[in-house]
Amino acid sequence: MTVPQAFLLLLTVVPGLLMGCDEGGPAAVHLPEAEVLMAQSNCLGCHEAESSTVARIGLMPGPRLDAVGGRMSPASMRAFLTDPGEAKPGSPMPSMLHGMPSEGQEELIESLVHYLQSLGGPFVADSTKHLPVEIEHGRVLYEQVGCIACHDAGGMGHLASKTSIEAMSTFLQDPLHVRPSGRMPGMQLDAREAVAIATFLLRDQVEPEGLSPRQGLVATMYRIDKPIVPEMLPELEVDHVMAVKNIGLDDLPHPDDFFAIRFMGMIHMPREGRWGFRLTSDDGSWLYIDGEEVVEHGGTHSNTSRENFVQLDKGAHGFELLYFEYTSYEELSMEWRPPGGEWGPVPDVAFSAELATFNPPVDPSFVIDEKMRVEGESIFRKFHCASCHVPGAPSPGLPLASLDPERGCLSANVRPGLPSYGFTDAQRAMLSDLVDGATLLAQAPSPGRSVNHAMERFNCLSCHARDGTGGVSSELDRLLVSEADLGDEGRLPPDLTGVGNKLNEDSIWNVLLEGERIRPFMSVRMPEYGDVLIDLPGHFADADALEGDEVEPAFSIEIAAVGQQLVGDKGFKCIECHVFDGHPSLGQPGPDLADTHERLRAGWFTSLVLDPQAVNPGTHMPAFLATDQPVFPDLLEGDPQQQADAIWSYLSLGASMPLPSGVVVDASEYRLDPVDDPILFGVFMEGVSPRTIAVGFPERTHVAWDSESARMAMAWRGDFMNARGTWHQRAGALERPEGEDVLELPPGPAITALATSMSPWPEAGGISEGNRRDEDRIPIFMSRQGDLTIEERARPYLWAGGSRLVRSFQVRSTQHISGLRLRAALGTRIDDAGEGQWLVDDHVRITSRNVEGAVRIAEGWQELLLPIRMLKNDDGTWSGVVEVEVLW
Amino acid sequence: MIVPLLAVMIAMDPGWSVGTVAQPDDVVLEVGGMVSLGDGSIMVCTRRGESWVIEQAFSDEPVYTLYADGLHEPLGLLKEDGWIYAVQRGELSRMRDVDGDNRIDQIETVCDDWEISGNYHEYAFGPRIDKEGNFWVTLNKPFGNEPFGKANWRGWAVRISPEGKMEGACSGLRSPAGIEISPGGEVFYTDNQGEWCGASKLAHLEVGDFHGHPHGIDSSSLDASLVEHPGEVPDGLLMPEVVGEIPHFKLPAVWFPYDRMGRSPSGMVWDTTGGAFGPFEGQVYVGDQYAPIVMRVDLEQVEGHWQGACFPFLEGFDCGITRLSWAEDNGSPVLLVGMTDRGWPSLGSRSDGVQHVRFNGQVPFAVKTMRARPGGFRLTFTESVDSETAHPDSFTMRSFTYRLHSPYGSPEVDVDEPVIESVKILEGGLVLDIQVEGLREGYVHELEFPGLRNGDGDELSHERACYTLIRVPGS
Fold it and tell me: pTM (2 decimals)?
């Protein structure tokens, strides 16, 4: 059942709603159902209204047609134009041809078809081959990602005559491109998933005889000109397709170099159990079973092996192996290991190639007739189709405020030429009331009502409950699954009652508009509706947020350290069920704890941890603080409130949050995670130089030293570096910080001797002389300017809301040098904030505890300079020190 | 956890056995440099910028300590005066562990006068110290997708004084993956075939040489250059012809014919073990980045030019080889074989690691040396040749040279088959003088010995010897 169908049904079978309408008088104008119907019928596409009315009701235009000829067959256009409701049950597309003689209708429709086919068409597509298991995979996805919250469980039969696998999968990956209204939201599908769902939806295109199984596999040979990754498959040039008996290159004619082969078919497992698969190849190879990656052995390499194990049922499974050879030697073989057995070759009989051939509904006899196209274009104009189908088209109807409901689209007999929506009498009455009271519609509704309107309009209630209404149907409940064993909380879309007090507005925005997935283990996905929802995060916040819940507890490093302990394996073991900053949890993969502070409001968090069941009934989260006896009586006096605040304080450290004890660092080969000592990493660094030493600290605040220009060049927070660009294959990539809050430090030397207070700061100077390690293994970088040696140590310390960087300098010389300065900051504006603090461009705070700094203006820039006083040492040399804190 | 790997016999001469340095799961030894620290300890620096101290390296459970990290693709190590020298992409550095915990406390820049633009192929190799105490470093030219920044001194061998002052000593290098000083104090390097390097080679480095690749020749005009600008390099001449065109063009000591002698020679060591590693004392062992093999080279100086023969030697290692180095285990010499294949094709079953080779006393039947003499060659053997087989029919010879040209690698060109006219038996069959008609200067003379046998009727343990004849003695 589709959305509008649901509403029609609802309005038909619930007379109470209509009674309210009849009896309520003018107040009934505000009947929420009427406003939803008005939105979904896109009334305001034709009828101009106050901008506040448009904001309140919303527009729901039809699909963009500028490339419709490339995705829709002529026959399906004909059928749809003839009777939209019949061809596509539930379509909000009105009939434009009612009251017209049938022979005239046919001619008119044919002209429209010729015109629409000329837009990016005419429709052509090749037959494509897919594994039958893909269809099944598509069916599972269709059910489990949540398509059936709005669509019939069996899929949409009419689609087979409408479009091709390619056009369908393209559409599914980004439906908002064609349908910006959000009526069909994006489901965050990758290319492989979109194709699978397309094969399910278009399965009627398969020839029955295309499904006879036979032993072997189908191999598609591609020509390549560079090493490939699986994502490049759709772009590769197919050379030819052949049948093969098994995996390997021996009996398979192939070029010496620059080719790829994709083997497809089924693999028949003789028994259930945990099977091993081993790929040995030169160069790269990938194995997929039932659409899931089992072995990844990509990249150019010699004839080496990779293996993995996977639990499989007895019987047939979808099989796909991708292999490529770049240059030099080529080898490919696959072995399997039965449960409890030994590695060995896979016998030929284990493979069968059963491919389904999809024939798209191409009409080779259809040729665009120019005369009809021109005629069709004029009809398109005459019917004002653009009002719904072309973004920004003018409104052809009367303004909403001056409509007479007894005439036009809402009259009992819509006259020919005007759109006929087939409204029921009840709907007509309801809409008429709305039109009568159009001035009331210009009033801003309450935030709660705005939330409800959006949730009705976009069918959110099919998945989410709020304030006791909505939620998944029993059918959907049965189909939705989860990779995590976290109860219904980890499987079903969350109840949105009070969500605007739970989540801060930004995090609601991220989910609604940025596609952020907090619970990737759930099969169902939060759809993407696009910009039509930009007001909704604010409405949630306005409707739900409780005053006071945003107040943060007092922060101190010591309290945060207690929080860190409580989160880790020596505390409440939160990391057992929560992912932490991308590192897998020890048990169930609950939401990433490191994001908590960014997402949640302080008061809600405290309420949750103090009494999880009260805030979130049915949650699997234990009440670790609400116990009779405190578990950790020695920490903060065992006080639950203080311990909750400590956890929150720790989680507030953001990108600088050190990992809690017990987290198993993601074993990804190239991710660099400083845990105990600092990590040094020599790289080509973007924006610095090809001679950069990046230093990663466990405080998750990092710096980059440029050996080329002998200066500290950059600092950032969060993840340190990913070495893939430097350690993988030939490497040599320009590396960038993995983290965030990137701070670029001033160019040129940090310290120099100025001849006069007016002398310009030099652009270069100083040569790098290496580094030595202090007692904490922190590198102290050494450089020289003539007789002057400079040592710099940059060390992070945790701080409220993140971290600060302390830069300590020591200079030495055989003789006294006057005019020595540290350039602590360079910016367009530096404000003296008092007490030895300066604010640089409103976002960097520099603190000097001992030395009086001065800001000077230099060619449009402002510089913060700190003088360095040199003192004579016992051995006759001179030295000086200076230190600044940088907070950003 | 460290997984002990069993020592395996390699499918070559039974005279040498090979083991593998056991490696923890989380350590990747993409070997850039190796140096012995004595007492069975070694240091290995890796292309990931780490340097590991491996104690009890030859035991089942070596102890790994991360000495340094953050080096930038260091491709060579040297121990000198209490410091460990390492050459990184952009600098020659020296490192020191002051407190004896096997972890670096200090690293100093010795020289960073050469340039890098940020291309992956801008590798730097070395350092090696010559008789005068200068460091030598060889610098790759950039390679791959252009454009890459133009940096000075790429494709050069540079000489660095103990104070850190750099001079451009030789130009025209391409991918000089190995550099070593001979026991006599001469500097040699290996280069990989490619553009302007028709065949992989081992060449003598003398100040002022131009080795054929024009990429970096503009640096000749810099003050620190000791090499005269070669002018425009003619594209397509036969190698011997180039000598007449560019006076200071240096022909190599040895060319390694493609695929018959590896593909990409890399690190090398002289056998200075006094016979403890087998019968090839004084020869050079050369690894190959593509084929997991160690070749051997016998050099001689003829009319002032170093030249000689290369022979297949050890094969069947686990991966392409970047570095060879000597270590000692219980008083016996151990040849360390450092491996990595990241970024280039290589044969073998692994992608990184260190293996070690010991001589076990069984001397194979092999050509020990091949030396030029007027009108032919003198071959010496590790055991007497069966005199019945010491006649011209037991040999075949082919000669050829290469082009100096811009395409990637050169075919073998101007091929001829010199005639073995006579074979003279000396020293009871331990030495054979073969007389050859048709010797050519500037050509490889590739000798095979299909009919040659020892007293037991065995064939030689290797199929061929390739002598690069630049000068014929007495001509």
Answer: 0.69
